[in-house]
Structure formats: C-alpha cells, structure tokens
Amino acid sequence: MKLYDYILSPSCYKVRLMAAFAGVKPEIHAVDFHPGNEHKSLEMLALNPAGSIPILVDGDLVLTESSAILTYLAATSAPEWLGSRDPEERARIQQWLSFSHRLTTNLGGARLHEMLLRPGNIEQLQANGIAALRELEAGLFEQKLKGQRFLASNRPTIADVACFPYVALAPDGGVSLDPYPTIRLWSRAFRSLDRFIEMPGVHRLHDLKPEPQYAKTEA
Ligand SMILES: N[C@@H](CCC(=O)N[C@@H](CS)C(=O)NCC(=O)O)C(=O)O
Q1: CATH 3.40.30.10 domain position(s) in the chain
Q2: Which residues contact ligand 1 via a Cβ below 6 A?
Q3: From the centroid of its chain, how far is CA 160?
Q4: Which candidate in 28, 66, 143, 182 could, as Cys together with 148 as Cys, close a disulfide (CB 3.0–4.6 Å)?
Q5: Residues of the chain with CATH 1.20.1050.10
C-alpha cells in the first residue's frame, strides 16, 4: 500500500492518522508539493486528475479524496472507526465527513495563503472558517450534553479524523481557537488517544508529570 504524502499537508495527515490508528504502515511517497508542485506532474495527474493529495494506491486500486481513503482504511483494518450500526450515528458520520471539506476549503485555504502566500481573499476564507468552527463547537456541545466526547458517538470515528487536522492547524491561517472551549476539549481527547501521531504543529497531549519530588536533605 502506497501513500502519496506531504508532511505539512493536513489532508495527508488525516490518512497517516487513520493508518496509525488502524495499525497499517503504508509505504510513503514524499511528494514535493512545495516548491516542486509535483502533485501537478503528468505522472501524478494520471493518478488524480484533480491534482490533489493524498492518493492511496493498494494493488490495482487507486483512491483519491481523503474521506474515501479514511473509509477504506477503516473498513479494511479497523471497522470500529466506521461507527456502530445505529442509523443516526451513521448519518452523523456522513454529515461530518461532508462538513470536513468546508474546513479544508476555508481553514486550509487561509493556511495556504498565510504559509505559502497563495493568492486568495484571506478575510473571506477566515470568516468562512470561523463560521464552520462555530458550527463544530455547537455540534460538539450538543454531543457533550448527551455525554458523548466525539462527533458521532462516545468513541472516535472517521468523522473525528476528517475534521481534526484543519481545526488543530487553524491558527496557521490566522484563525484562533480561543473562543471554542468545546472544540479545545475535543482536541485534547483526540490528542490523548492511543496510537495518536503528531505532525509539525500538532502535538500529542502528554500526561502531566507529577511535580518533581525534591529529596529532603538532612540539616
Ligand atoms: N478534497 C481533497 C482535498 C485535499 C487537498 O486539498 N489537498 C491539498 C494538500 S493539503 C492539495 O493537494 N491541494 C492542491 C493544491 O493546493 O495545489 C481531499 O480531501 O483529499
């Protein structure tokens, strides 16, 4: 299994995260996204005419679109990440997978503008990103009232994997997470999961170590 990947891409990070949670180790093809624009090369456009990464190749199967890749990895190696058979939970997962593309467009667009100087209307991208974060905060708050820590249930699913990276990296695009306490709690819960992996700018939530005990010296 081969993943066309770029270390600083939140969309590729979704796939690396899901692979880690599922205990799968894809061979990594490091794409020269910036400054090389390798994802627009003829060889890569033949794999994905949309000219975006991630791309996952498993034998004869070529998959593009991060949500499809998350679904594939979970279905083949960690079906519990697809959620339960409950109809509402299944529908919620689909809802948040669709929603995650608004995070990509807006928070991701703002980040590309700020980090790679991509042209674009930064005020509009940030405003749309903030609107999406408010929606996410409200959704997570409703979940919290039901005693559920994650987007579709009390355990994480591909919906959380799809939404987490662009939210965690929102400050790179000039969008603060300070106004969203429930998002920050969710981020802490997600970053504490077993097998969670980091990317530059997104850190595991380490358990706090006890205060150092200083040995008392005899007077
Ligand atoms: N809908 C795609 C979007 C992925 C995406 O936006 N990838 C970025 C890298 S983070 C990309 O390849 N953008 C192409 C470009 O900016 O030239 C998915 O979810 O896989």
Answers
A1: 2-80
A2: 9-11, 39, 51-54, 65-66, 101, 104, 108
A3: 7
A4: 143
A5: 83-191
How does pLDDT run across 135-180, given as a tens digit for each residue?
999 999 999 999 999 999 999 999 999 999 999 999 999 999 999 9
Fold of domain 2-80: Glutaredoxin (3.40.30)
Substitution site in 8, 72, 104, 202 for ligand 1 pocket (most atoms within 8 Å of beta carbon) = 104
Q: How far apart are CA 54 and CA 67, in angstroms?
A: 10
The two three-digit tokens of residue 90, written as one number: 């299944």
- Report the predicted TM-score, pTM, of the whole model to 2 decimal places: 0.94
Pair of tokens at residue 194: 């077993």
d(CA 131, CA 102): 10
Q: What are phi and psi of 27, to 5 degrees?
A: -70, 135
The string of pLDDT tens digits covering residues 173-214 is 999 999 999 999 999 999 999 999 999 999 998 766 666 665
